[in-house]
Amino acid sequence: MEKDADGFYTAAPAAKKQDEKKPDEKKPDEKKPVEKKPDEEKPDEPAPSTNTELINSTFEVSVTLADQQADSSSPLYSVKTFEELGLHQDLLKGIYDMGFSKPSKIQERALPLLLSNPPTNMIGQSQSGTGKTAAFVLTMLSRVDFSINKPQAVCLAPSRELARQIMSVVIAMGKFTQVQTEYAIKDNLPRNATRITAQIIVGTPGTMIELMRKKVIDVSDVKVFVLDEADNMLDQDGLGDQTLRVKNMLPKSQVQIILFSATFPDHVRAFASKFAPNANKIELQKEELSVDSIRQFYMDCRDAEHKYDILVTLYTLLTIGQSIIFCQHRHTADRISARMTAEGHHVASLHGAKDATERDEIIDRFREGKEKVLITTNVIARGIDILQVNMVVNYDLPLMNERNTTHSDDSRPDVETYIHRIGRTGRFGRKGISVNFVHDRKTWLQMEEIEKQTGKKIMRIETNDIDVMEEKMRKAMK
Ligand SMILES: Nc1ncnc2c1ncn2[C@@H]1O[C@H](COP(=O)(O)OP(=O)(O)OP(=O)(O)O)[C@@H](O)[C@H]1O
């Protein structure tokens, strides 16, 4: 199969891990109030290594995997082949047609468990960009009886953008099968639709509930229920209620429940075990949560306005590959993009307040590389797989109060969302960098908490000398 313009199935060599240190004495003293941190307060960091090549998204996957074989701790490492995983010939053809030559570690470990009979539930965790989608898509495709024109597999995702992406994988992997598919996302079906006969349905919970309630989706033959970004889908502060309603509409027995995510915070893990009883579990240790191919940085900004100035200064660097800029609020995303556009820069903004058609157009343009810089909110923090994205900027750090609107004063950092946000880059062994903007004591402490919880160093890039800043960034991107 030809690769799409969005370059879904290409890969580049993995980044080498850097052993860099942020001097401890430069962190604010916990006991004393911390002043704003002007750049000159801290010495510069050691320059990152430049001995790797620029990301080349036209490299074939086999190159990446050959590289990865050497490191058995890599989430991309595998000793098995797809043939050994017992997949149907038509699915093998689909996989190879996508350019996959070997399973990744999560695929190697999860697929035998997912495909064994009788079907067993699964709670699977693996870092961002390591191939979880293929694991659950292959399971759905393997379990569907193509001679029956009724829904048999239902997959929920937290955003329409992710649902559309998952569907593109279903279609690509199922290319040599007779699979029929349908979306359950807003404004997709005609209002008078009466019955979906497709075997695999991918959507978001609200629309899925509506279609099941109206019996447009007949659930009686459903045998696989997948939650991608499962911790988010089950979180009572998020989509938990809706997801539970969908589950309660499915047949009580016979349904294999499959939960996948890069993160499973403790409070969700317990609920996940009830939601998917007796599940096989593949879990990550806390220190393994994010991949090492993402190099993390921060920039000291004097105040909120300085954040904007720095972002504008970074513009050329943001467009070397593609970049995603995450903001806390929709209005911030709109305001920054309007201002940058007025100043002659080319950026796009995407958030949940835009209508469905516009959202689809924006993400498609970004996928195709027609937009290089996307300013957005948490709406695309999870799952979105665009291989050319080599930089993520946390213009605002993610906070718990965005997740839980009933606790609007909760300014603790949302570490899970942080892990997912930076995971939009550095996918399947590619290199990527993330940059956090911090501008006062509060944001500094939030970032420090993220660093503590993820166990990964976040290195400083100075902002007081633009040339030095640019130079460092360019090096980091190599
Ligand atoms: N076995 C494989 N060989 C080569 N490329 C692969 C393989 N499996 C997956 N990929 C590619 O790796 C990229 C990341 O995969 P995927 O989107 O499934 O990651 P993920 O684990 O679901 O990430 P996230 O946690 O961000 O949702 C995709 O572009 C996918 O096509």
UniProtKB/TrEMBL annotation:
Keywords: ATP-binding, Helicase, Hydrolase, Nucleotide-binding, RNA-binding
Motif (Q motif): 80-108
Catalysed reactions listed for this entry: ATP + H2O = ADP + phosphate + H(+)
Domain Helicase C-terminal residue range list: 310-474
Regions that span the bilayer: none
Origin superkingdom: Eukaryota
The keyword ATP-binding appears for this protein: yes
Positions of region (Disordered): 1-54
Compositionally biased spans, kind Basic and acidic residues: 16-40
The Helicase ATP-binding domain, residue ranges: 113-282
SUPFAM superfamilies reported for this sequence: P-loop containing nucleoside triphosphate hydrolases (SSF52540)
Keyword ATP-binding: yes
Protein's name according to its UniProt entry: RNA helicase
Species whose genome carries this gene: Rhodocollybia butyracea
Organism taxonomic ancestry: Eukaryota, Fungi, Dikarya, Basidiomycota, Agaricomycotina
